[in-house]
Amino acid sequence: MKLLYIVPKIKNAGGVARVLSIKANYFIENFGYEVHILSQNEETDLSFYNFSSKVVFHNMILKGNTFQFLKSYKKEVKQKIKQINPDVILVADNGLKAFVFPFIIKTKTPIVFECHGSKFIEEQSQKTNLLSKLIQKLKYRFKDFAVRRFTKIVALSDESLKEWNVENGVVIPNPSWIQTENFSDLKNKKVITAARNSYEKGLDRLLLIWKKAGEKHPDWTLDIYTDDIQSLEKKAISLGIKSGINYFKFVNNIEENYLEASIYAMTSRTEGFPMVLLEAMALGLPCIAYDCPIGPRTIITNAENGILIPDNNEEMFVEKLSFLIENEEVRSKFSLNAKKTSQQFNIDKVMKKWETFLENLNLGNSF
């Protein structure tokens, strides 16, 4: 089978790039599929994650105003579809151009929208006036209309699929790719997180939490793996945080860093199906996260394998993080359950679902 993935970026350190590298490699090595990936404006970039040498990368140069951008997008995509002649096209993009796709690309090939985020991913930090709210509402209505034009939509959880309220949807979660018997011993006085420094990922919220929790537990440190250390460090200094935080660039293989920590903290404003939680849990880390739309609650069961905090309840987050810091016995209990949770998303089980889905789709079966 020949697959064509269409994505904005694939060579960066983002979660979508991580999961697509895992899936593309599995498709090739275990199913013998041919995998093509078409991304934009990264022709000379090197891949952050390890892709099989058999993955075929394609690049399209997109620039200019909205009209010019979409015109180039349509032309480039049509050319690649004609050249590659895929059995299935998978669009893994949260941008508005993804929702335009079924209207501007006419093909008999099945088109799948692979949803990696909440429908309500639009950043709202500065959008408070009536015009902005109206535009945002129109965007959501367009998304609702457009997503029904895809052959299928693949959501990462039941919660995600409910947001779209469609009849052409299926649920296939992200796979847990770390398969090891190793556990963090939970002895190191260290909290860890890995996220882009963006509004969506909410590292600014984590700094506010750590200002209080770190002052209460000065013998503990917070390790942040991110893409923009300078801006985050300036923000921390402006908040009066002078110590207790270590900043690192993203690393390809983060397993060793998880094993050196005792708690994973997530303060995202929106999520899809956060790979970082699965990675941390696979290594026995208890996790604490805001119950944002929609990802954390599909992985964390409150008070069993971690802690879910009502979204934006900073005081409770500080309180519960301090509780985890102070209670090694609770961390150990969560650790065992976290490991079991990660096993529910075993890569072989998840990829078998993908194989069945794609083969049915290619055969034109109704399911």
Question: Can you lay out the helices and strands and say which pair or pack?
Answer:
Layout: E1 2-6, H1 15-31, E2 34-40, E3 56-60, H2 66-84, E4 88-91, H3 96-104, E5 111-114, H4 130-147, E6 152-155, H5 158-164, E7 169-171, E8 190-194, H6 203-216, E9 221-226, H7 229-238, E10 245-249, H8 255-259, E11 263-266, H9 275-282, E12 287-290, H10 296-299, E13 306-309, H11 314-326, H12 328-343, H13 347-363
Parallel strand pairs: 1-2, 1-4, 2-3, 4-5, 5-6, 6-7, 8-9, 8-11, 9-10, 11-12, 12-13
Describe this structure in words.
The protein has 367 residues and is an alpha/beta fold. 43% of the residues lie in helices and 16% in strands. It has 13 helices and 13 strands. The chain has a 7-stranded parallel beta sheet, sandwiched between helices. The protein has a 6-stranded parallel beta sheet with strand order 10-9-8-11-12-13, with helices on both faces. Helix 10 (296-299) links the parallel strand 12 and strand 13 (306-309). It is globular. The mean pLDDT is 93.
How large is the share of residues in beta strands?
Answer: 15-25%
Helix content: 40-55%
Order of helices and strands: EHEEHEHEHEHEEHEHEHEHEHEHHH
In DSSP terms, counting alpha (H) and pi (I) runs of 4 or more, how many helices?
Answer: 13
Radius of gyration: 21 Å
Shape: globular
Mean pLDDT: 93
Count of individual beta strands: 13
Biggest sheet, in brief?
7 strands, parallel
User: Structural class of the helices, strands and pairings?
Assistant: alpha/beta
Distance between the termini: 19 Å
Low-confidence stretches: none
Q: Strand order, biggest sheet?
A: 3-2-1-4-5-6-7
